Description:
The protein has five helices and two strands. By secondary structure, it is mainly α. 0% of the residues are buried.
Amino acid sequence: MSPASTSGGSHSGNGSSSSNGKRNGNNYRYRTVNAQSEVDETLFGTPHRLATAAKMREERQQTQDYQEKPLQNAPKQPATVKKEFIRHITKDLIRDIIVPEDPTCTSVIIDGSTYQRLSHAASLKPKEAREHEISESKRNRDSVEDELNRRKKAMQEYDQHRKKNAPLEDIDLEAKEEAEYMLKRANELRQEQEDEVKHLNELILNAKCHAIRDAQLLEKQQIKKEMAEEDKRLDMMMEIERLNALKIQEEIEQRRHVQAK
């Protein structure tokens, strides 16, 4: 084969390979990214169910963290025990919940006799025994109340008898008489003051009545005087009108006589 043919063949081969490369470059091949299809939910907003589940997981994790927190810094015997809280976060609000305390710290220790008495009282008994105990207790209580009432009545009777029979001394009699005199005098003065007050009230009332009556009479006289003056003024006006009318009538008569001549 000649060199020319060889060179021509090589040129033709290079031209075909370049054309194939261009065609392959223009045809894009699909590249597999993942065998399963996934969608980013945040692009479309978080669903309500997923948000609720996330909040529940967060609350449960916070509760576990508070419960598992070591109490190394707590005092061994504090003077006042502080209450422990757990923060509960919900959709609507945030609140602190008090952790229940150990009930053993408030236990009461009693002696053996008290325990025996309480256990004996709490034991089940027949109905007749319970009724007998109740009636016996009521009878004892009634007897105690009767005795107290009897003693109280006896003391009251003794006190009244002592007051009646006790002789009054001279000082007591004098003090009693002075007190009675002062009381009597106070009543008399009060009666006199009441009489004086009544008399003054009557005088004031009479003065008011007279003043009102005088004012009414004066007003009546003033009205009567004004009415008389008004009547007099009207009479004068009527007289003037009458005189004017007579004068006009005389002038008319005179004109008629003049015209008749």
